[in-house]
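The data layer described in this paper is built around a simple, fixed record for each protein. We quote a single record here, exactly as it is kept in our systems:
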Amino acid sequence: MAFGVRCTLIVLGTVAMGACARGPNVERAFGGAVVEGRYIEAPAYSAFLRASIADATGDSRDAVDAYREAARWDPEAREAMTASGTVRCRIDPCPSASVDARPLAAETSAPRLSNLALRVNSLEALARLDPSRRDAAARAAEDLAGIGVLGAARSLAAAAVEASDEPFPGDRALAGRLAVDEAVGRGALSLLRHRATRSRIGLEETAARALLAGRRDVARSLSFAELLADPEAFGARLVFAAAGGSDVMGLLEAPRVGSRPISAAEWVAYGQALQHVVGPGVARSRLEALHHEFLIAGDDRVVRAAVDLASRRVIAAEALPATGAVELAVICRGGPAGSARQTAFDLAALDLRHRYLFFAYEAPSDPHTRELGERLRESSSDDPIVAAAEVLVELAEGTRFKSQRARALLDHDPGDLLLATVALSVAEKIGDSETAKLAHAVLAFVKCAGREPP
């Protein structure tokens, strides 16, 4: 291992030991919250981090050795032992594993929240201390997004982007956008411009992402600055109008012949605004005429908004990546009907939480579904995809729900179509007519095949 990385691990291990010296538990900042975790010996901490890095960079044999070392130093490190076995099966397929078992890779597992916080904080520090490891941090950020821990994913992606003055690798498109979303949350225009440049994301797309995040003021400022620099910037003009910077009739302008494709974020943000100006049918025709970039699977900010548009038939379902298509399938067909449905999806294109949603809907009693739920329950309990999948499994199992369960789902995000879908199923099961009425109101504009109108 390079001298710089060894020094980094020593520094991180020393920090961990100092932080933990006061008692058996230690508090760690994670995703905007404080998480309590047990004390970890510095050598175990260092070995676990080294294993995570080796695993993230594809060095499976070193990862197995380091995970085993971590387990020797810390016999309670269940995640290290599990990860060691998983990576070892990746090198030499385990006899008990079959195609139907669909084993999950270590990098997509969901460890306990306290250990996840430790790993994220470690990778952030590592990226700052050793910029050559920024790709490992970026990959981990994308994996975190895949289990629904978006706050930590954005923070880690931002650390990866800021680790070096060099432009961010183009093959980490999702991580770059997570980093931009982290800056959108902060709202500082100077930081946003800086982050967009580092992430290799255009300012027009950055403005659209701000609009999709509800930051209309930020979206207006960024798109207006782009229009001043380039009056022909079609995407910026659309975002500026959609954000309330000009007459909404500006949304009806046609792009000039030869205009560059607009980003997926610009296309979706445009569609959200346009549907309220001309209606779903006309909006769909205009959107289909626009040349745009493909939506990126796992890009929550854009894909979930696109699912909303597809459910209203403003865009075609075929425009969605696999993650969005799974959500749309559940929304359109409602709660589980009690029989298995064989829907064709490329499982390799699904992140962990959407895989859980898929199996929760298609095969809620499958042991693999239960395994996915157990992996995600603690680390991703606040994620709407995971929450919806868990309820689908409980519905299929005939679970007795508490009287407030349906309302709690709806209150999590009153406008979320997926949560409204499962909340409606729960409300109808327990006889909560008031919540059922509210859920019907949320779903009133859903027009996809398979869902009966309220």
